[in-house]
Amino acid sequence: MERREFKLTDWQFSKDKENWSSVSVPHTWNAVDGQDGGNDYYRGTCYYKRTLDLVVQNGEKIFLEFDGAAMSAEVFLNGISLASHKGGFSTFRVELTEHLKGSDELVVAVDNGDNAIIYPQKADFTFYGGLYRDVKVITVPKQHFELLKDGTPGIKVTPIVDLKSKSATVTVETWQNDESVTITVNGESREVPSVGGHAEAVFKIENVHLWDGVEDPYLYSAVAELKSGDKISTRFGCREFGFDSEKGFLLNGRVYPLRGVSRHQDLKGKGNALEKADHERDIEIIKEIGANTVRLAHYQHSQDFYDLCDERGIVVWAEIPYITMHMKSGRENTLSQMRELLTQCYNHPSIAVWGLSNEITAASVVNEDLLENHRLLNNLCHEMDKTRKTVMANVFMLETDSPILEIPDINSYNLYFGWYLGELEQTDEFFDEYHSKYPERIIGFSEYGADSNVAFHSSNPEKGDYTEEFQCLYHEHMLNMIENRPYLWATHVWNLFDFAADGRDEGGKHGENQKGLVTFDRQTKKDAFYLYKAAWNKKESFVHLCGKRYEKRAEEETEIKVYSNQDHVSLFVDNWPEMELDGSTVFTFRIPLTAENGGVHKIKAVSGSCTDEMTIIKVTKPEESYVFNKAAATVNNWFDAVENDPTCFSVADTLSELRAHPQAGMIIEQMMAKASASRGDVAESVKDNPALQRMMGRMTMLSLLKQSGADEESIRQLNRVLQGIKK
Ligand code: GCB
Questions:
Q1: 494 CB less than 6 Å from ligand 1?
Q2: Using CA atoms, how far apart are residues 416 and 248, in angstroms rounded to an integer?
Q3: Ligand 1 near 60 CB (within 6 A)
Q4: Residue 650 in this model has a pLDDT that exceeds 70
Q5: Closest ligand 1 atom number to CA of residue 420
Q6: How far is the CA of 150 from the CAs of 65, 235, 482, 628, in angstroms?
Q7: What is the dihedral of CA 384, 389, 390, 395, to 10 degrees?
Q8: Residue 323 zone, left/alpha/beta (φ > 0; ψ -120 to 50; rest)
Q9: Could you tell me whether strands 211-212 and 216-217 are parallel, antiparallel, or unpaired per DSSP bridges?
Q10: Cβ distance 344 to 146 under 8 Å?
Q11: Closest C-alpha to 15, from 30, 25, 35, 26
C-alpha cells in the first residue's frame, strides 16, 4: 500500500472557545494587528477545530503533520490530549490511529503568548500566532518509515565529494519498523537490512555532477522503499563547502564569495501564512538581485523555501530563534529547535551553516549559563552533522575578545554603523581591526542596513531621514567596503524585504522595519535594490534611473544617478546633447534644472539596448511630503547660527561629556529614558548594554536628538538649559 497524504484546510477558529469562525489554513490571527504598530497584537492561546472522518483500514497507521504551529501547540482528539509541541517553526507529527472512532473532533490549541521557555521572546519582528503552514493527514502501512522523531523525513543523505577523482561517496540512512529497505541512488538499488530500526547504505557516484551554486545547482535523488509499499524520497546535492580566513568562502574548491540578503517569512496583509506562490515570488526576487546566498532569519523557514534554494543554487544560512535575550529556562527549547532544524533540513544541499544564535548578548551578559547553552548547541550540531560548520551572528557591541566567539566554528557580525550609531566608515575600521587582530579567524558580515520609506526623498540625504537616497548612499558605501575585503566569507543585507515588527513606529510607518530593498508588499523595488543588482546580476543587462519617485525638485542643479551592470551609460535630458560616462555599477550625472516648459524634464538613460526613463519637475519650494523628519531636516540650517557660550554646556557636547557632570547628566538621563521607545522592544531592552552606552557616549547630543526626530523647539530649549550650566 502506498502512503497517502492530504491537507486539512477547512477549520473553525476561536479566541475564546465560544465564538467560532471559518478559516482556511494556513492561517494566522495576527495578519492585521501584527502589522499595524502599537506592539499590541493578540498574544495568547487560540483554538482551531474540525471534524475528522477517517477510517482505519488494513492495519494502516494515520498521522497528523503540522508544518508550523506558532509558537506552541497542543493537539486534542475527542478532548484527549495526544501531543504538544514547543517551537513555532518546525514540523511535528502525532499518531492518531488508536484514538480514531470514525467521526472525531480534532482541536488544536495554539499559543503565541509570552513565557520564559520558548524562543523567541524578545526580537525585532512580530511573533505571529496560528497554524500558519500546512496541516496534513498522512496514512502509511503498518510497516513504514519513521514519522514521529523530531519531525524526521525518515531519510538522511550525506554526500562527501572528492574533487580530485570527481566522485562522491553518498551515505543514505533510513529509519523504519521493517526488516529491510530498498534504497536507490543514481539508478543503483540495494536492499539493506534494518538493524534496531536503522538502515544504512553507501553509494559511490563516479563522474559526479556537482551542485555548483547558482551556475549549476544539480540535484540527485535518493529513494527508499519498504516491502509494504511505503516509499519516501529526498533530493540531495554533491558539493564541497570550504572556509578560509583570507579567501573567504569556497564552493567545490574555488573561491566563491557569498554575497546576498536576509529574508523573514512574512508579507503585508498575510502575515506568515504564506502560500507556495509567495515563496516562489521571493526566490525570483533573490535571483533577480543576483544574490548567491540568503540568510533565512531568524528561525526555521518553510521546507518549500529551502527546496527553492536547492533548486536555484542559493547557499543558505539556517538558524533557530535563539535571539536577543538569553533565558535561563529556555535551554531545552534551544536544543529541541536545533535538533528539529537539523533533522528536518539536513538533506538540503543549499544549507552551508547552522546559526546558533543571533545578537544573543544584546540584552544578556555573557555568563556561564549562556556559554554552556552555546557549547551544547554547538556540540549537538557537530554530533548530528559532521559536514557543516556552526556560526553565530554577533551584535556590534560584543567585544571581539569575548569567549563566546570561540564556541562556533566561524563568526559573523551584525553592524549598523552609519545607521543607528556612528559613521559608515566605522564598519571598515571594525573589519580591518578584527582581521588584523585575528587573521586566522573566519569572519563575515551577517547584517547591515538602513531604513527607507519610498515616500521620502532628499538631495542632501542624511542618516535617520528614511529617504531612499540615504539608503542608496549607505549601501554604496557598504558594497564598496565589502568588495575591498574578500576575506568576508559571507555578507547579508538586512533585509531584502520590509517586514513586520509591530513594536516599531518610525519612518512614517507603523509596525514595520523598513530596511528592505523591496517593500513589504513586494510591489516596489527601492533604488538600492538596483545597486546590488548592478553589482551582482551579470546576466540580465539593465540601466536603472534612481529617483523616479523623487519627481519634484527645487534645486537649480540636480544629481541623476544610474545603477547599471554595463560599463558605459549615456544620459539624455530633453533635447540637450548626450552625456556619457564610463564606469561600473554607479554612474552619477549632474544636470541643471530649468523652469522652461513648466519645469518638466524628460530623462533617459541608455546603454546598448537597455533604457530607462523618468520625468523630473522643477518646483519653486522643496516638496514637503518628501520629508519625514521635518524638524530634523532643518536643524543644521538654524543651529549653525546659534551662538553658544563655550564655557557652558550645549547640545554640541558629546553624551559622555554631559553625563560626566552631575546636573547636566541628570537632565540627559531623563531625556534618554523616553527616547528608545519608537524603535520597538529590542531597542528598549538593549539600552542598558554598557558597550552601547560607550558608543553613544561619543556622539553629540545634537546628532542623537536629530536622529530621534526631536523638533526645533525642544532642541533649543535643551540647549538653553545646558547653556545655564558651567563646564
Ligand atoms: C538586528 C537584528 C534584526 C533587526 C535588525 C534591525 O541586529 O538581528 O532582527 O531587525 O537588527 O533592523 O534593527
A1: yes
A2: 22
A3: no
A4: yes
A5: 13
A6: 12, 20, 39, 48
A7: -170
A8: beta
A9: antiparallel
A10: no
A11: 30
With b meaning 16 or more CB within 10 Å and e meaning fewer, what string describes 304-323?
Answer: bbbbbbbebbbbbbbbbbbb
Mean pLDDT of the chain: 96
The C-alpha atoms of residue 349 and residue 90 are separated, in whole angstroms, by 19
Alpha carbon dihedral 351, 355, 358, 364, in 10-degree steps, equals 170
Of ligand 1's listed atoms, the one at least distance from the Cα of 414 is 7
Cell of 349: 544541499
Amino acid at 66: F
Ligand 1 mutation pick, 447, 497, 678, max ligand atoms within 8 A of CB = 447
Assess contact for 65 and 144: CB atoms under 8 A.
no
Q: Are strands 167-175 and 155-162 parallel, antiparallel or unpaired?
A: antiparallel
Residue type, 523: Q
Per residue in 623-637, pLDDT tens? 999 999 777 777 777
Q: At what angle do helices 368-384 and 331-345 cross, to 10 degrees?
A: 20
359 in catalytic set = yes
pLDDT of residue 676: 62
**Closest C-alpha to ligand 1, atom 10:** 124
Question: Comparing 439-453, 572-586, 689-703, which segment has the lowest mean pLDDT?
Answer: 689-703
- Residue 338 and residue 321 in contact, taking contact as beta carbons nearer than 8 Å: no
Q: Determine whether the shortest distance from the Cβ of 122 to ligand 1 is under 6 A.
A: no
What number is the average pLDDT over the span 278-290? 98
Atom 7, ligand 1: which residue's CA is nearest?
A: 414
- For residue 80, what are the CA distances in angstroms to 68, 104, 316? 21, 11, 40
C-alpha triplet 582, 583, 589: angle, nearest 5°: 75
C-alpha 470/C-alpha 467 separation (Å) is 5
> Which of 319, 466, 494, 678 maximizes ligand 1 atoms within 8 Å of its Cβ, making it the mutation to test the pocket?
494
Confidence band for 366, pLDDT divided at 50, 70 and 90: very high
Task: Show the 3-state SS of 410-428.
Answer: EEEEECCECCCECCCHHHH
How much distance in Å is there from the Cα of 358 to the middle of ligand 1?
9
Q: Which of 375, 313, 377, 320 is nearest to 345 (CA)?
A: 320
Which of 69, 111, 129, 127 is closest to 94 using CA atoms? 69
Cα-Cα end-to-end distance for the chain:
86
Model confidence over 472-519: pLDDT tens digits?
999 999 999 999 999 999 999 999 999 999 999 999 999 999 999 999
pLDDT at 677: 62
Q: Name the residue with the closest Cα to ligand 1, atom 2.
A: 124
Separation of CA 124 and ligand 1 centre (Å): 6
pLDDT of the residue at 678 = 67
Radius of gyration of the chain (CA): 28
